[in-house]
Write a structure and sequence with these properties.
3 domains; Heat Shock Protein 90; alpha+beta; five-stranded mixed beta sheet; single chain
């Protein structure tokens, strides 16, 4: 039912009189009527021309009665009857090889207008027809033109305009009635077609959008995909795909929120347990038994990784959008600090090649970028890389920074989910949070990070970062 309030949401569809269907119906009628007017104008002009040509043809025939007499004369009664048949006050005929023949009765003396049909033009006929229809009183017209029976014969008649105007009005009324019937019939067909093909699908799409807005996590009763190949079908399929993607993202975020709440509750106890385990591992490291001492580093490493994972997960679940504390600093100095922070990871300082030239000054959050490059470097070194190379080059208002390692590369199954939390880990025991956090930080700076290549010869990450935050825009398309 039109104009009803969709259940479960506040959307109110417009009533029929204000609906898109009603507007389309009205526009169709208007456009058809405009088309009919454009057709009517030359039609009424043509109708007037045919009417006058018929009068000239009738006048030519009436003159034949004069030619049949020896003296080209007829009685007054016959002359009046012939002129009444023509509907004229005067008829004259002129042939190239003889004089002028005429029939005439007494009538009005003043001629109101003279028209030469041999000089008629398209727009002139339309203009004369409009003048005739607009006339309020009868006019006496003098019509001159070639006879339709013989173009070499010139015929002249004097007649009243009123009978012609009545015929023109009758013709106009017939055209108007026919136009209204065609307009209404066409508009009804267009209305039904557009209502079925456009308005109803659009109402379903609108109702689905409103329902999704009210309760985005409920899929029951939602819009389904369609096989239509036109724009409406494409829009409906894209909307269904978007809703499914957003619904999945919302469910994942709900689970992450629950995970964050759970981690927050158990974090304190878990850290205490790990601290106790760390103290025990220190005692094991000082044990007199060589076998026990040899196992201690492995235990310490496992506990350190557990502590790091716990802290990283808690931090990720607590963080909202990255808050930037902007300042200007030299990028090379930051890379040096990252190298020192990773001295105990993998092969240490020997594996970190800082090729960033001094003088690359950028405006950004130094601590946040430290996390980005520290995560990338740590991932590379822990994956087995013996060398990590950092290089940077300017591209317009951006810096393109390459982080390249010579590690074994990433497994193919990890690449599609590389920047998704808890799913993009490339090593056993990893959380997948490092790359997700790096991605969020780069986007907060108006930049981007993407993996350019990863194979058996190594992995290359490319980061795009604006030099100044005043030019921070989506950088992935601006620099490469």
């Amino acid at each position: 039912m039109l104009g009803h309030k969709a259940p479960g949401n506040s959307l109110r569809l417009p009533p029929l009189i204000k609906s898109l269907s009603a507007k389309l119906l009205l526009l169709t009628i208007v456009f058809v009527m405009i088309a009919e007017v454009l057709i009517y104008a030359p039609s009424i002009g043509r109708m007037r021309l045919v009417y006058l040509q018929e009068r000239l043809a009738a006048a030519h025939l009436s003159i034949l009665a004069l030619e049949a007499t020896p003296d080209n004369m007829v009685s007054k009664d016959l002359e009046a009857e012939l002129l009444q048949h023509v509907g004229a006050y005067m008829v004259a005929l002129k042939k190239p090889d003889q004089g002028k023949l005429m029939l005439m009765v007494e009538g009005p003396e003043a001629i109101d207008a003279t028209y030469d049909l041999s000089q008629a033009s398209f727009f002139g006929l339309i203009r004369d027809a409009v003048v005739a229809l607009a006339a309020q009183e009868n006019r006496l017209l003098r019509i001159i033109g070639p006879s339709p029976k013989d173009p070499a014969v010139e015929v002249e008649v004097v007649l009243d305009e009123a009978p012609m105007r009545r015929d023109m009005l009758d013709f106009s009324y017939r055209i108007l009635n026919l136009s209204l019937v065609i307009s209404i019939f066409t508009a009804a067909l267009v209305y039904l077609s557009l209502h079925l093909l456009m308005v109803r699908p659009m109402r379903r799409i609108t109702a689905s959008m409103a329902a999704f807005r009210e309760n985005p996590e409920v899929a029951a009763g939602g819009l389904t995909s369609t096989e239509r190949s036109d724009e409406i079908g494409i829009a409906q399929r894209e909307l269904v795909t978007m809703q499914e993607g957003l619904r999945a993202a919302l469910l994942q975020k709900t689970r992450l929120a629950a995970l964050g709440a759970a981690v927050t509750k158990v974090n304190h106890d878990l850290r205490n347990i790990l601290a106790t385990a760390s103290l025990i591992s220190d005692r094991l490291a000082r044990s007199g038994d060589p076998a026990v001492r040899s196992m201690a580093p492995t235990l310490v490493g496992a506990i350190d990784r557990a502590l790091h994972l716990c802290a990283q997960t808690l931090q990720f679940t607590r963080e909202g959008p990255a808050h930037l504390d902007l300042n200007r600093f030299d990028l090379r100095d930051l890379m040096t600090e990252v190298r020192e922070g990773l001295a105990g990871v993998g092969v240490g300082r020997a594996g970190w090649l800082n090729e960033v030239e001094r003088g690359f000054s950028i405006e950004a959050d130094r601590e946040q970028l430290y996390r980005v490059f520290s995560n990338l470097g740590r991932n590379a070194l822990e994956a087995g890389a013996t060398e990590v190379r950092i290089a940077a080059r300017p591209v317009r208002d951006y810096l393109v920074i390459d982080v390249e390692d010579n590690g074994p590369g990433m497994p193919e199954e990890a690449k599609p989910h590389l920047f998704k939390p808890f799913t993009g880990s490339t090593r056993e025991g990893g959380s997948g949070l490092g790359l997700s956090i790096a991605h969020d930080i780069m986007r907060a700076h108006g930049g981007d990070v993407r993996m350019e290549q990863s194979n058996g010869e190594g992995t290359l990450f490319r980061l795009v970062l604006p030099v100044a935050q005043s030019s921070a825009q989506p950088a992935a398309k601006k620099a490469s």
